[in-house]
Specification:
- It contains 10 helices and no strands.
- The protein is mostly helical.
């Protein structure tokens, strides 16, 4: 049985991603971050690691502004502006606490395994948990929006993250570190989001042409 209020919330959330612009922004960001991760692992330049951290912070901080700027030009003139509700203080606190709890549990599992089973087993577990956690974050977005597209992104993330691990052992040590730090998973997921975002944007622009002057 459908919930009209919940369905309306999902439609509002989907409006943010239905033009594909967030997919393009996040996908490009993932690919750049993956390239920086690969570069950092294969070089001894400390400033590359600093650049990677700065890029991640800037990507998160500027995301809404950059996407909104493009929406002002492409989306809102076609289908109108929707004001997105901000989470309440209680919702924000609960989200932070849940994130800290999940992160704490995963950290405990990894460190406990490192201490009891050895570095090899502990790192293997960490490498398995990373794509699962990452895809889980995308899956939450898919669930909240009722988005099949983001569900596919989550599936790409977990499959690419786990499938690449057996092949990483044949790579040089520096390349292994890059793969285990998520470079391959981010690159593949980012490419998938770029393709999905581009197709979605093309379909959106063809479906909603700009209104002509004089149209109501």
């Amino acid at each position: 049985m459908s919930n009209p209020i919940r369905d309306a919330e999902k439609r509002t959330l989907r409006y943010w991603t239905e033009d594909g612009l967030p997919d393009l922004y996040i996908g490009l960001g993932f690919i750049i971050y993956a390239a920086l991760t690969w570069w950092s692992a294969r070089s001894n330049l400390g400033w590359v690691e600093a650049l990677k951290s700065i890029f991640l912070v800037a990507m998160i901080a500027l995301g809404r502004f950059v996407v909104e700027t493009f929406k002002m030009r492409l989306t809102y003139p076609r289908t109108g502006y929707v004001a997105y509700s901000q989470p309440t203080r209680r919702q924000a606190v609960l989200s932070i606490l849940l994130s800290l709890f999940v992160g704490g549990v995963l950290a405990f599992i990894i460190f406990y395994t490192l201490a009891t089973e050895g570095e090899s087993t502990g790192m293997t577990l960490a490498n398995i948990l990373l794509p699962i956690l990452f895809s889980g974050m995308i899956a939450v977005i898919a669930y909240k929006q009722g988005s099949v597209r983001y569900g596919i992104y989550a599936l790409i993330a977990v499959l690419s993250g786990l499938a690449v691990l057996p092949f990483a052992r044949s790579l040089p040590p520096a390349s292994q570190d890059a793969v285990r730090n998520g470079a391959a998973m981010l690159a593949v997921t980012g490419a998938g989001m770029l393709i999905g975002g581009a197709l979605t944007l093309v379909r959106y622009l063809s479906r909603y042409p700009l209104p002509q002057e004089g149209e109501a």
